[in-house]
Write a structure and sequence with these properties.
Function: Antiterminator that binds to cis-acting regulatory sequences on the mRNA in the presence of histidine, thereby suppressing transcription termination and activating the hut operon for histidine utilization.
Largest sheet: 4 strands, antiparallel
CATH superfamily: Hut operon regulatory protein HutP
InterPro entries: Regulatory_HutP, Regulatory_HutP_sf
Subunit structure: Homohexamer.
Number of helices: 4
Shape: globular
CATH class: Alpha Beta
Family: Belongs to the HutP family.
Number of domains: 1
Number of strands: 4
Distance between the termini: 23 Å
Protein name: Hut operon positive regulatory protein
Helix content: 40-55%
Amino acid sequence: MESNSTKIAKIATKMAICNRNEEDELKRFYNEQGIKVTAANMGGNINSSISKILESALVAAKRNGLIREEHLHEGAVIGATRDAIIQISTRANGLNVGGKIGIARGGEHISVCIFLSIGLLHLDEVVIGIGHRSLPV
């Protein structure tokens, strides 16, 4: 049987890899199941974009009602986002990236997934990172 943390991590990943039309459909679908989701586009040089990635994840989570505006909730989103950044940073170090941040919250579980395409000459590399935290409901 799948744990709730695994389920929420998979949903965050779906949000990070979907296109805009799918994003709206997934929001409706998961909302009916009591799971809140959101996504935000991102891009630029990874080294100079880290603070923007953190800010984008936090703003998206607040705007879409995944978290409350309080220290514990904000810290959970920042921590999960930092974990995801750490996982992608060595592959993307110094390079331009473009992609999406997907966030899902179900009960006490919140996951942040970052899916990126890394521009390297005429080749495109892809990388994915994910972080998870538990929050009181």
